Amino acid sequence: MPSKPAPMKKSPAKKAVENAPEPAPEPRPAPPAEAPPAEAPAEEATSAVPAEETPTTGEAAPAAAPIAEDSPALPDADAPIEAAPAEAALIEEPQKAPTPPPPAVPSSAPLNVSVDDVNDSSLTIKWKTPETVGSSGLSGYTVEYRKDGTTDWIVANEELTLADRYCIRNLTAGNLLNVRVVAVNPGGRSEPGVLPEPVPIGDIGDKPKVRLPRSLRSRYVKKVGEQINLVVPFIGKPKPAVSWLKDGQPVDTKRVNIRNSDRDSILFIRSAQREDSGIYEMTVKVESFEDKAALAIQTVDLPGPPSSVKLVDAWGFNAALEWTPPKDNGNSDITGYTVQKADKKTGEWFTVLEHYHRLTATVSDLIMGNSYLFRVFSENQVGRSESSAVTKKVATIQKTGIVYKPPEYQEHDFSEAPKFTTPLIDRAATVGYTTKLLCSVRGCPKPKIEWLKNQMIIGNDPKFRQISNQGICSLEIRKPCSFDGGVYTCRAKNAQGEAVVSCKLEVKQVILPEADKEKGK
What we know:
6-stranded antiparallel beta sheet, about 525 residues, 5 helices, about 10% helix, 35 strands, about 40% strand, disordered N terminus, mainly beta, Immunoglobulin-like
């Protein structure tokens, strides 16, 4: 039967590698002088190949010989053997021993061990992580307890807990227990965090709780001398024990009056002073349970004046000032400054800048030849400081020779040729009834007015009265007759030119009836 295809069989080189005995442990590197030549391992490897099992089929044996010679597995098998001399050369120098890690140190004690809950058969406590844990971290916590009056501590948790809360179960009601918590890390046990007071095992009516009003959750600000009256409600059964601290110390009952009821606590200060500012902490406690609330009271006053003010420079009509903030800000932030000036001649102070926020200012519009003093007040939310800082130097505005040169204005030419704005109008008159002709004219310079009748200048005829006033021209004809009718012309002349306007006047005769004529006779 024909032999199976070659790819399905393993090459002798691979069989040699698979069936070779386990390699002996690598010998320690020998000195370079005693190292064998590079060809020696290769010869040993090739001599080991015929020692392996040969294929059972006679036809596969001839094909295995060339594969064993040309197989790429041999260089792979020889690679670690050839690298041995190089490795030996690299580690001629002895390596330095690694620096041992520092010994583990226990962590600090757990913080703020307190009671979270208690009933007839269990007690739950809580705590906070220690300040220093150590580089290796925490392994967990051990919770231990003992009855009050005994010395033996009992471990509550068989395995370490990583939580910051633990419930101790199967307790007997009425017992008084002391509890402590120990942090454990690779360095060992820490100092214990101990519950401040022993805990009675039993049900609690209502846990104490402070209900701080919303208005007191932010900073409570009052002016010096004002009254402080704060009411803080709370809950808890039986009646909680109430205590107050100011900045971590018991309040001074000579200055602060505390009145407690079943539902609230009142903090009363008749007249607030600067020293009454601080953080007030209220604590309500029912057996082992307690609740706290903190409120900040700030009493503010008028600030002091700026520490110093000086005149930096004076030039032209200006003076530059500079000052420093006050040492006493009245227990409140400085909101601005008021700058005033005073002429030494009058000594009266005038405000130049108000609610000014910078520490430097330039005062302008000073009067030439006068000397000035300046002062600065501080301002905060209460108001302006009672006193001020005054400059020691006087700012003198020097007189300088100033020649006033009035501006030159180009005169406007208002000259205009005469122009009639209202013309003469044709009209009719009755014999014996005085009549007037009217027109208006403008022009610059004032035009000269002439009246003409039928192109003849009237002149100074007493029958006619000529009037010209504010550009209104009039010609009055006294008791005209039929011969006074005709064309009348008004002519206006000046240096720029002349203008004329004309009209027709008709004088009518009154015709009487015959009966009226006879009566007239």
